[in-house]
Amino acid sequence: AALFMEGARKGSVVSRANSIGSTSASSVPNTDDEDSDYHQEPYKESYKDRRRRAHSQAEQKRRNAIKKGYDDLQAIVPTCEQQDFSIGSQKLSKAIVLQKTIDYIQFLHKEKKKQEEEVSTLRKDVMALKIMKVNYEQIVKAHQDNPHEGKEQVSDEVKFNVFQGIMDSLFQSFNDSISVTSFQELSACVFSWIEEHCKPQTLQDIVIGVLHQLKSQLY
Does the keyword Nucleus apply (predicted)? Predict the structure, then answer.
């Protein structure tokens, strides 16, 4: 009985000690768990996330490039800067910007073709003037080489007759070609008459005809 009581007393002491230890242990903070939470490894971006982010960046870059292109077109094309009363002060849509750009490019093509035709006409005029220049230079040179040749052999009356014959021929074609119903029509007819009846070859034929006619009258 004494041994049994002693064992029971020791067991009670051990049980109380265990209870106190567990209580103390539960009241002490778990530093290991906190350290584990505090020192978590950094989040690693997955391949899918990286791919999604790269795709978003590329798409945003593409949209920015398109927007800049439309802004540049709107700044370059003059018709895009003009006020369109049909849409008021609203910002031009992309469709309107593109249409106005197409119209402006077509206008530039027409202007380019028109200018090319004008340049071609001017080149022909320059060629005709060069031919006339060469002929006049030859006339001046011949006169300088023989300054007294033919002097006082042609009277002023004959000169006037030559001039009158040339002018009469030109006035006949001028009178047949010119309309004076309005100043605008007169201007257009004058230019048309010059282009058709005042060409170097035409004038040369007129002068030769007048000279032949006067020659037959003089001799």
Answer: yes
